[in-house]
């Protein structure tokens, strides 16, 4: 006894009490996905407050010399225990009433379903500190240890803190129409019950317009349920903005929607507005679920297998290495799907999983903040099979059902998600995101973190050749750029079932005009070959500035592959904008093939007898007092962008950097550079002196230099690109790939070579490192999306494992019976053997 207390006193200076701002990792091991519920529990360092599973705590002790750890173990209560506890003084678990986490009325993050045991353990012998050991210590030591234990247990875990910070989905604002809403004196009185839509007689999902008292049905949902849009159509016809959902009115309030503001809102005068039509809020009772309750129900149900099961089939659960599920952390299915696919690629396996021991040995003192460590931890967790085990059944142990439930223990990538999303305005939140955007974002992070050694992103990197031909002079210009994804447009006019679609549209219009519920619309069937043709066919550039004729003229642009990557990602551009710039998703079926031969789309460069456009700068703009070295910018394109609300200088840069190729290209540039820190700064031209305080010779970021050099360019080339683009990395990368011809003429001093070397001794100048090979591919994975836009819905992925398609739906991993290959969003191909 005394020996343990003496050891504890000797290490007292390494035991800290958590202070505000300390990150306490008491839910997840920094090097694995062990938790207090895992076998062996979790050991929390009482100095750094990092958590380690039983498998890795000895490693931390040997590296740091730390001896005192707080050992936390949790044992799941049985359902019967939970029920008994609820009835013996503990309040029953409340249902959430607010779409938020960790705040009053929201989802309860800390579920009361575990029994917890906490004790101090001393290493290397794992001696447990008992109450008697603590009592035998001097008071100052006993108080220090007790305060540290209490502080760790009282502190919010990092994962809990992040969840609370990340998600509060229901913050309603007062409607600007509420205070001065005009209500018609039409004598209309609404009864307290028995409502139905005045157009289609629907008796649920009903909304009363607060201006004229008209009762009509709500919007139709993406799956065909809901109403028939009559309340929305009434607003479009009348402009009356506010409506209240009947059945949600209680003395505490009701659901009010503003069609003009396109959001749920607050109405401070709601009692008065309801009273105008004979409704007394104080006597009303709730009979319909509120919009928040409906949204909560969707969020609670999103992990259910039935949401996306294949044709009602009973799917067979799978377990083992490479078959590990991932917990949904709140709309994190986009991340789960992307990472499942990436760790099917050998480059990512070799980089992060094959060398897991070396990576963990070299991890910094705080591995929770190290990119390589956390990616390796995730990859090993997915591929090892250690966490691919059936989840414990929370029901009574006496259950005799032999039917496999399909749920896995799986892994919860909380530390990984927090690290990769840190600082990003979207990926740091718990809102749904676009899987394609996250894939590119993560590849960019890999590029930045693999400046030396193996870079797994090279598996996806390829060169695109763009050939522009001036139609007046027939001279051509060739440029190359790096890309990671092929984005295929969806030519809706090429649907093979056009007659069926036209007939369905005619029937729908008749139904709407008669007030009848519209029939379900058939899905457009688009041949994959037409999508590929739309990507590769020549594009007409109406306002191309030709250096051959020194004027604007018409040109054609043709896109081809300059190299074929080992792994090819194809995005079907299902998400688009309507005429009103409202995002929408195309409901299409595309016959995506299992094998693909793109050999015919390889670019061949300058063709025999073809003349190139001269490398002459466009004519300068003239002002009364000074000559500005700038190209002529298409004023009409600049004006169109400005009318959309973008800053003038940003619009000028968009037109400049897209070479006057039209509004679509300029708009794409704007959407891709809105987060740039100098988005609204004045246009700075390559080689010119610039904005106030900068010069062409100003220093450039060493970090940005290293990133570009890691892509295969020389330091001089990287420096020129950064100086030409005001030291903005993303723009510099764009610039360097659009000026490859200029860069090839630069003298390269890398490796001791000088300008005096003979021409014959010169090696080709360095360029982007890309792999190349035959353009024949086979499909091995695809990611699918359910919902009306990338900002909502659900993602799952299908991956081919040993000739068997497997569906990964968060924590559930099953053999796929009928993989819906025609409904995918992102498709992943590998080079065919």
TrEMBL record:
Residues annotated for substrate binding in this entry: 207, 219-222, 257, 259, 262
Binding site for Zn(2+): 197, 200, 217, 230
SUPFAM superfamilies: Cysteine proteinases, RING/U-box, UBA-like
Region (Disordered): 72-98, 386-408, 498-520, 747-773
A single BP term in Gene Ontology: proteolysis
Active-site residues annotated for this sequence: 333 (nucleophile), 794 (proton acceptor)
EC number: 3.4.19.12
Domain UBA: 632-673, 699-739
Keywords, ordered alphabetically: Hydrolase, Metal-binding, Protease, Repeat, Thiol protease, Ubl conjugation pathway, Zinc, Zinc-finger
Domain UBP-type positions: 173-281
Domain of life: Eukaryota
USP domain segment(s): 324-832
CDD domains for the chain: Peptidase_C19B, UBA1_UBP5_like, UBA2_UBP5
Pfam families (alphabetical): UBA, UCH, zf-UBP, zf-UBP_var
Family classification: Belongs to the peptidase C19 family.
PANTHER family listed in its UniProt record: UBIQUITIN CARBOXYL-TERMINAL HYDROLASE, UBIQUITIN CARBOXYL-TERMINAL HYDROLASE 14
Name this polypeptide is given: Ubiquitin carboxyl-terminal hydrolase
Organism of this sequence: Coilia grayii (Gray's grenadier anchovy)
Lineage: Eukaryota, Metazoa, Chordata, Craniata, Vertebrata
């Amino acid at each position: 006894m005394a020996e343990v207390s003496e050891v504890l006193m000797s290490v007292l200076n390494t035991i800290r009490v958590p202070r505000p701002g300390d990150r306490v990792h008491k839910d997840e091991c920094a090097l694995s996905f062990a938790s207090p519920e895992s076998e062996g529990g979790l050991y929390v360092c009482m100095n750094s407050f990092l958590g380690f599973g039983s498998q890795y705590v000895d490693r931390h002790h040997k590296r740091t010399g730390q001896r005192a750890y707080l050992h936390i173990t949790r044992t799941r209560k049985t359902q019967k225990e939970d029920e008994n506890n609820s009835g013996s003084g503990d309040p029953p678990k409340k249902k959430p009433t607010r779409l938020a986490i960790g705040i009053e009325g929201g989802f309860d993050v800390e579920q009361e379903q575990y029994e917890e045991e906490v004790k101090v353990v001393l290493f290397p012998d794992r001696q447990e500190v008992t109450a008697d050991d603590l009592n035998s210590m001097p008071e100052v030591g006993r108080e220090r240890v007790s305060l540290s234990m209490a502080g760790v247990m009282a502190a919010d875990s990092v994962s809990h803190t992040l969840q609370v910070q990340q998600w509060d989905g229901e913050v309603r604002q007062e409607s600007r129409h509420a205070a001065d809403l005009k209500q018609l004196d039409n004598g209309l009185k609404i009864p307290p019950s028995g409502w139905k839509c005045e157009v289609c007689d629907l008796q649920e999902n009903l909304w009363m317009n607060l201006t004229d008292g008209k009762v009509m049905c709500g919007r139709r949902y993406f799956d065909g349920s809901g109403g028939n849009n009559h309340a929305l159509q009434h607003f479009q016809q009348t402009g009356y903005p506010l409506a209240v959902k009947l059945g949600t009115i209680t003395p505490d309030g009701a659901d009010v929607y503003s069609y003009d503001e396109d959001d749920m809102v607050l109405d401070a005068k709601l009692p008065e507005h309801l009273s105008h039509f004979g409704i007394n809020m104080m006597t009303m009772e709730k009979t319909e679920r509120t919009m928040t309750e409906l949204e909560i129900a969707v969020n609670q149900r999103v992990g259910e297998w039935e949401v996306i099961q294949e044709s009602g089939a009973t799917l067979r659960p799978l377990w083992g290495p490479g078959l590990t599920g991932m917990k949904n952390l709140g709309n994190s299915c986009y991340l789960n799907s992307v990472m499942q696919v990436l760790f099917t690629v050998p480059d990512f396996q070799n980089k992060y999983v094959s060398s897991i021991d070396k990576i963990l040995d070299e991890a910094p003192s705080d591995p929770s903040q190290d990119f390589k460590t956390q990616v390796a931890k995730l990859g090993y967790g997915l591929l090892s099979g250690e966490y691919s085990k059936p989840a414990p059944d929370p029901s009574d142990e006496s259950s005799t059902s032999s039917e496999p439930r399909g749920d896995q223990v799986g892994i919860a990538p909380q530390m990984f998600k927090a690290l990769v999303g840190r600082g990003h305005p979207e990926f740091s939140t718990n809102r749904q995101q676009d899987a394609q955007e996250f894939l590119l974002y993560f590849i960019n992070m890999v590029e930045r973190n693999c400046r030396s050694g193996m870079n797994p992103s090279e598996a996806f990197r390829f060169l695109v050749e763009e050939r522009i031909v001036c139609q007046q002079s027939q001279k051509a210009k060739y440029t190359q750029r790096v890309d990671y994804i092929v984005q295929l447009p969806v030519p809706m006019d090429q649907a093979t079932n056009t007659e069926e679609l036209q007939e369905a549209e005619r029937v729908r219009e008749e139904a709407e005009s008669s007030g009848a519920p519209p029939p379900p619309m058939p899905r457009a069937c688009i041949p994959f070959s037409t999508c590929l043709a739309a990507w590769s066919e020549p594009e007409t550039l109406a306002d191309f500035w030709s250096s051959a004729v020194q004027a604007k003229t018409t040109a054609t642009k043709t896109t081809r592959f300059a190299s074929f990557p080992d792994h090819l990602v194809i995005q079907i551009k299902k998400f688009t904008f309507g005429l009103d710039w409202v995002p929408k998703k195309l409901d299409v079926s595309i016959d995506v093939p299992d094998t693909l031969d793109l050999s015919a789309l390889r670019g061949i460069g300058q063709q025999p007898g073809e003349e190139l456009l001269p490398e002459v700068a466009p004519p300068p703009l003239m002002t009364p007092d000074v000559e500005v070295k700038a190209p002529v910018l298409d004023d009409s394109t600049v004006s169109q962008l400005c009318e959309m609300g973008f800053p003038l200088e940003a619009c000028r840069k968009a037109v400049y950097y897209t070479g006057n190729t039209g509004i679509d290209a300029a708009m794409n540039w704007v959407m891709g550079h809105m987060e740039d820190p100098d988005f609204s700064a004045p246009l700075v031209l390559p080689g010119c002196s610039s904005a106030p305080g900068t010069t062409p010779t100003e220093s450039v970021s060493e970090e940005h230099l290293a990133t570009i050099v890691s892509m295969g360019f020389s330091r001089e080339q990287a420096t020129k690109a950064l100086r030409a683009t005001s030291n903005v990395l993303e723009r510099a990368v764009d610039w360097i790939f659009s000026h490859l011809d200029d860069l090839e003429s630069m003298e390269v001093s890398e490796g001791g070579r000088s300008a005096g070397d003979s021409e014959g001794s010169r090696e080709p100048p360095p360029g982007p490192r890309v792999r190349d090979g035959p353009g024949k591919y086979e499909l091995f994975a695809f990611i699918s999306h359910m919902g009306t836009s990338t900002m909502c819905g659900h993602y799952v992925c299908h991956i081919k494992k040993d000739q068997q398609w497997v569906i990964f739906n968060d924590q559930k991993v099953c053999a796929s019976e009928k993989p819906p290959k025609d409904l995918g969003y992102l498709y992943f191909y590998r080079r065919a053997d």
